[in-house]
Amino acid sequence: MDARKAHKASSSSSPSSSSKRWKYDVFLSFRGEDTRKGFTGHLHAALSDAGISAFLDDNELERAEFIKPQLEQAIDGSMISIIVFSERYADSSWCLDELVKIMECRERLGQQVIPLFYNVEASDVRKQTGSFAQAFEKHEVGKHDKEKVQRWRNALSQAADLCGEDLKNADNGREAKFIKKILGEVNKQLYSKYQLDIEHLVGITSRLNNVVRMIDIENSGSKDVVRMIGIWGMGGIGKTTLAKAIYNKFEGSFEGRSFLANVREVIANQPITGLVGLQKQLLNDILKSKGHIKFDSVAKGIEMIRKRLPCKRALVIIDDADDLQQLKAIARARDWFGPGSRIVITTRNQHLLDQVGVDGIYMAQEMDEKEALELFGWHAFESGYPNQEYLDLSKRVIRYCQGLPLALEVVGSFLIKRPTAEWESHLEKLERSPDGDIQKILRISFDGLPDQEKREIFLDISCFFIGMDKDYVTQILKGCGFSAVIGIRVLIERCLVTVSEQKELMMHDLLRDMGREIVYENARGQPEKFSRLWKREDVTDVLGDSVSTFQVKF
Questions:
Q1: Is residue 140 annotated as a catalytic residue, yes or no?
Q2: What is the pLDDT along the chain (554 residues), one digit of tens a residue?
Q3: Which segments within 12-163 are labelled E, that is strand?
């Protein structure tokens, strides 16, 4: 991987992975005698207060023989370089060497460079006129060779041509306003590098546009209103991918941002410490406190969120929430966040969003055939379309997956670089029994149902009642002793069952297969032990078995 590819990879990854590539957020290049005790010192303090790691050479290095390689490493390891061009900047060969290195890193690594013109004209820097001309008169008659001096000149011209900031344009030269403006630009550039990784953006644009209208950021009338939006759908349908796309699109528009991933799983693995950890992440992310916020209980976390975040306009993504108490500990009320904040919650449970009182709910949609074929192509062939030899087999996979992105990814990743004979064999296996990795994700919704009765109703529908009238099925289930009205409603809220325009109960094929597989598992493959029978051959076998107990549903 070459340097530019390495930069591209790091800039599209998560904050945690990006921080491993870059040692510092910002490198400050300045002439110490001009601005160290004034402007640059204040700028460095403001960056640090904002949680931005800014390198200042005289704070971290002693001026010794080994300083130059260390300094070059610091420049090379910084995401952004800020150059403070002051009146005597070019007097220092040290500063000019830094500048050459910075411009090399910009070309080689794609490093962002922000020039600041502090009581100097950009044209003097670009053309080496004024005080810069005087400095170069000394350099040219001094000990420096012509090639080095020319490199300095080129670097100054290139830097001055970049989009920068000029003190005289900042509210009549007020330094406090100037520093605030610079801080905003650094945040904008810095966090544009902290994009969450999305492997393949297939079918995202139209879905993103629908959610954007709900989020309503552009509307000036709602700019100070805190809005909560829900993204609801079955497991594996792409809720998290959509939430990442929202984060990547809007994170630069907010003072603070936080993506709380896999909330359900985090808390399931660590019921108490997991929730405290999510509270800490929320606070540290939005306040940019680099992990310095400490507390040891959910109650203290709630109190700190209520006190510290109402002043911050924040974007918060709460991914895969499944419990009201979780949300109450993280985002109980809109006034916990600053005016204009947006909170996006992804979940499999519509009722949870109703309990929270979100402003809008987007139901995640399955992929159409064209989208599904493209996504499958990326995973199975590393291109956006299947190889011609595999086209018919690929369409069989598409029919099996029924537009579920998770299934397309799992099956495609398994089949990549396999011959057609192995594709045929695997498809035959899938038609007999579901893929285990897909089932693990889908089963989370089944296992998360509030009681055994709801699970029994789901299994009955998956085995017997798909495509049948909802009211008719309700009456049958009531006759079996179930609280069918609330039971079916909960299944609908959990995206385990849908109702067609004709009021028929419907279910995704993979959910149907999961339900039937659960019945198989409980009986360990012996039809006489099945709790339900729906295949003619199984019914025949059981009825023909003299030892059958008939403790099954037909």
A1: no
A2: 333 333 333 333 333 333 335 788 899 988 888 888 888 889 998 888 777 888 887 644 444 433 467 788 888 888 899 999 999 898 888 889 889 999 998 888 878 899 999 888 999 999 999 889 988 888 887 777 888 889 999 999 999 998 888 887 766 667 888 888 888 788 777 665 566 777 778 888 888 888 988 888 766 566 788 999 999 999 999 999 999 989 988 887 888 889 999 999 999 888 778 999 999 999 998 988 766 788 989 999 999 999 999 998 999 999 999 999 989 999 999 999 999 999 999 999 999 999 999 999 999 999 999 999 989 999 998 887 888 889 999 999 999 998 999 999 999 999 998 999 999 999 999 888 778 888 888 888 888 898 999 999 999 998 889 999 999 999 999 998 999 999 999 999 988 999 998 899 998 888 888 888 888 776 665 655 666 766 666 666 666 665 555 455 54
A3: 24-29, 54-55, 78-85, 112-117
Strands 112-117 and 78-85: parallel
**Identified catalytic residue from 87, 98, 251, 409:** 98
User: Residue 229 pairs with which residues in a beta bridge?
Assistant: 344, 360
- Model confidence, pTM: 0.68
> Cβ distance 128 to 79 under 8 Å?
no
Q: C-alpha 302: how far from its chain's center?
A: 24
> What is the 3-state composition of the chain as percent helix, strand, coil, each rounded to the nearest 5?
60, 10, 30
Q: How far apart are CA 415 and CA 425, in angstroms?
A: 11
Give residue for tokens 């089932």: 439
Where helices occur in 216-297 by DSSP H, the ranges are 239-250, 263-269, 273-287
Q: Taking a C-beta distance cutoff of 8 angstroms, is the pair 46, 56 a contact?
A: no
Backbone angles phi, psi at 258, to 5 degrees: -155, 130
Three-state SS string over 144-172 comes to CCHHHHHHHHHHHHHHHCCCCEEHHHCCC
Taking each helix axis from N to C terminus, what angle separates 146-160 and 131-141, rounded to the nearest 10 degrees? 160
* Distance (Å, whole) CA 44 – CA 272: 38
State how beta strands 342-347 and 360-363 pair: unpaired
- Alpha-carbon distance of 283 to 295, in angstroms, equals 11
